[in-house]
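Input record, target 12 of the design panel.
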């Protein structure tokens, strides 16, 4: 199984979370590949995993975790077999219409109770928002 992470390498929180996901994947025996896809300049950050430009997503298939709702439109134009997971905790933008319009194609995951409560309050039962205790639980669910 392959896990991809789309991150902005200029955002410290995203870098930290991506590293946490890579470390979590190392504990899961059936995860063969973990790849970091970036949509900003590569600052030479060491993830102990391949770091690729986001344009290479066009040849990727597998699970993909992303941190910004602004990426939804671009991601869904990729004609590959990708299962999308939107990790909402780090997103400073709020795009409820993009989430609702694509609810059958994207799973929303969070570890933050306040973020979960906020999303549930505004989106109601129109979109399933999965709340987990930590990154490891999210990885357990998606693998």
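The sequence produced for target 12 reads:
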């Amino acid at each position: 199984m392959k896990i991809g992470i789309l991150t902005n390498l200029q955002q410290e929180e995203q870098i930290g979370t991506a590293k946490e996901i890579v470390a979590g994947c190392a504990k899961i025996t059936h995860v063969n590949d973990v790849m970091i896809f970036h949509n900003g300049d590569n600052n030479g950050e060491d993830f102990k995993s391949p770091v690729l430009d986001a344009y290479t997503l066009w040849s990727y298939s597998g699970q993909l975790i992303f941190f910004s709702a602004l990426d939804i439109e671009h991601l869904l134009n990729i004609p590959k077999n990708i299962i999308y997971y939107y990790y909402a905790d780090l997103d400073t933008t709020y795009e409820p219409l993009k989430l609702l319009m694509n609810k059958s194609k994207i799973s929303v995951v969070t570890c933050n109770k306040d973020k979960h409560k906020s999303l549930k309050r505004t989106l109601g039962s129109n979109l399933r928002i999965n709340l987990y205790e930590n990154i490891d639980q999210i990885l357990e669910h998606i693998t």
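Residues 12-26 form the longest helix (15 residues).
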